[in-house]
């Protein structure tokens, strides 16, 4: 009785549920402390203490009808002012509240952008390995997701294949930097190259190609690396941002979209994002947390906790003989599997209570995602399990 | 450059913006206290003090990673347990957490239900006067909204026309009780009749017709009237609920869907709602406010404040000669306009700084919506403006 679009998703859901149940089964046998769940992306670092203080301040100082009430569907103007000032300062830009739409996380942001841009059959290009939800978001609006195969030497966009895959139907390109699952931050050179290809193809086909930079991990970066700002490279660009990772607030569904000031059709697009927020049923980003963000722009979680995890696990895996790029951001490792079949590798891993996600789930077989947003002590306890797993293939 | 679906909406948006600008213009000339904005549905009654206490308790007692973290996309199980117990107690039901999906308000709930149920060209029937957003929600999934004309004698569903308009394509029927804009609560007799028609047509066409009762005003009722529970009338039924009105939290986007235990295809539908929450970009209802609701189930705003407003304005309009059903719930009056052209009437009203919404916006011309969720003192000050308006037609 459910819709055709949902039927397959419901059928496939049993596989996801099976994995979840397997985790619970293992925990019941071996104890939760001896099951190493590296499959999830739920931040384990606590939200900054400032968040609680900001909530208290708001509840004590602002009118409850204002704090919990409706506002413009694009969000409170004062909060959008603060965010634009923060970005102006960080990237030397000239944004105002008109460039900012508050969204229900990055997922909400991506959906209102695709609702705004896509006609049925329009093409959305993204780069493997890619976040699997892009397929669903594109399908919500009857678009077609086109995958550019991975360049596994750098995990930056494969530019030659991008050029080939752009057609007159290409409406959107999505990049994700720092990348889930590789942790790679797209370089200045890569963004320049990417932008020049898009400019060239816009001219060739006389179309508009919009570039969305999905950046929920922008603040989760190591070793003082900077994430370049896409708005400076390409006119028809958006940023999709979320506080799920940078403030460890994934359940609160709070983020924003930035619309490049130089974008073609700016006014209509800004208006459409506002309406899409309303009619897709978001109405507006949750109000209290909008106001919390307005007071927390210079607040971040302690990234060193993730860095310590990365270093421990990365060094151990390299010593074991894994091939892996050292991630510059996000909280995942994405090593090559020692056998070609990444699904078989993940099955083998379960024998040692290691729960991992095969690279095929990200359109990149022969690799595996290991999510290290878990406790340092648990990673330490898991190291011998990796030893035993690797020994299978020696 | 924006999608075809959004183009018209963006074009029409200028009319809405014009009304908003007109309100601001009037306020700048006459002072905000002398402009009577009866057009909005933003609750003016404060959220109960309990809400603030519940937030403080949660922040002090529960782990921040749990309170602000991801959970099952259908919501925290303990909160869904509490809601099912609350409903079991209120309506003598036998629900469990499996029947409850936490949603981003009623708007989020309606969207995940329609995503779950609709194939393109499927028909959704609703009853005028109706909430205009139903059109957009249906259009999001390429369904077709079919409007049953109003029965202006009772403002209950027009049953004869309903029977005629059900086709093999009818997948969903939406009712809204207590109703926006009429304030009518659908009676036991009406719900029985409605259900028997749907049962009959399901058999005739060998289809499933799902009934959604959209109930954001369920707790905003007067004179001890009870809102009957749709789950007891019809197997294939859902409730869409929101705390926007009952707790004055419209900006927080928190509500739930109830799936009738006896529904056909229950398991697939429950699973699909869970996935739809995720892939439409809601991911989950905002986490802190889920937990707040778990502690606030027996809390309500002071409905007497709305009742006093209703009585003041209703009595005044009746004395002026308006024809109007006395609303049993919600916070709107929906009188007949003294001239046939309700849009002209609303234009005339502006001359006296009265901002009203024409019934045509709800598919019911010749009527007008007056939203009395504003201060009693402001309503008092506005009464002479209604006198002057009515005098135009004497």
From TrEMBL, chains A, B:
Domain Aminotransferase class I/classII large: 34-385
Annotated coiled-coil segments of the chain: none
EC numbers: 2.6.1.-
A molecular function GO annotation: transaminase activity
Keyword Cell membrane appears in the UniProt entry: no
Keyword Transferase found: yes
Source organism of the structure: Clostridium taeniosporum
Record key words, sorted: Aminotransferase, Transferase
CDD domains: AAT_like
Record's protein name: Aminotransferase
């Amino acid at each position: 009785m459910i819709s055709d679009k949902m039927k397959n998703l419901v059928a496939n859901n049993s596989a996801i549920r099976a994995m979840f149940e397997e985790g619970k089964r293992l925990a019941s046998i071996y104890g939760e402390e001896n099951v190493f769940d590296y499959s999830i992306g739920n931040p384990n670092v606590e939200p900054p203490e400032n968040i609680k203080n900001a909530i208290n301040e708001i509840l004590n100082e602002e009118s409850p009808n204002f704090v919990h009430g409706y506002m413009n569907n694009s969000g409170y103007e004062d909060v959008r002012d603060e965010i634009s000032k923060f970005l102006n300062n960080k990237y030397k830009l000239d944004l105002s509240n008109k460039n900012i739409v508050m969204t229900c996380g990055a997922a909400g942001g991506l959906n209102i952008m695709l609702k705004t841009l896509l006609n049925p059959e329009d093409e959305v290009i993204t780069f493997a390995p890619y976040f699997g939800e892009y397929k669903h978001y594109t399908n919500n609006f009857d678009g077609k997701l086109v995958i550019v195969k991975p360049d596994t030497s750098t995990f930056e966009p494969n530019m030659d294949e991008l050029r080939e895959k752009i057609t007159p139907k290409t409406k959107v390109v999505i990049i994700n930097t720092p990348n889930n699952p590789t942790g790679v931050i797209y370089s200045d050179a890569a963004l320049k190259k990417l932008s020049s290809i898009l400019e060239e193809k816009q001219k060739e086909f006389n179309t508009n190609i919009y570039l969305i930079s999905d950046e929920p991990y922008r603040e989760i970066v190591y070793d003082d690396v900077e994430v370049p700002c896409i708005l400076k490279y390409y006119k028809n660009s958006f940023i999709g941002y979320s506080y799920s990772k940078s403030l460890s607030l994934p359940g609160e569904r709070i983020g924003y979209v930035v619309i490049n000031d130089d974008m073609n059709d700016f006014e209509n697009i800004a208006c459409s994002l506002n309406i899409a927020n309303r009619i897709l049923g978001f109405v507006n980003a949750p109000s209290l947390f909008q106001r919390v963000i307005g007071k927390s722009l210079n607040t971040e979680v302690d990234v060193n906790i993730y860095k310590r995890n990365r270093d421990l696990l990365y060094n151990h895996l390299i010593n074991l003989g894994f091939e892996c790029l050292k991630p510059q951001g996000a909280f995942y490792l994405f090593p090559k599997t020692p056998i070609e079949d990444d699904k078989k590798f993940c099955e083998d891993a379960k024998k040692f209570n290691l729960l991992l996600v095969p690279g095929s789930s990200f359109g990149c077989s022969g690799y595996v995602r290991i999510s290290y947003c878990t406790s340092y002590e648990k990673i330490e306890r898991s190291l011998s399990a990796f030893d035993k797993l690797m020994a299978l293939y020696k």
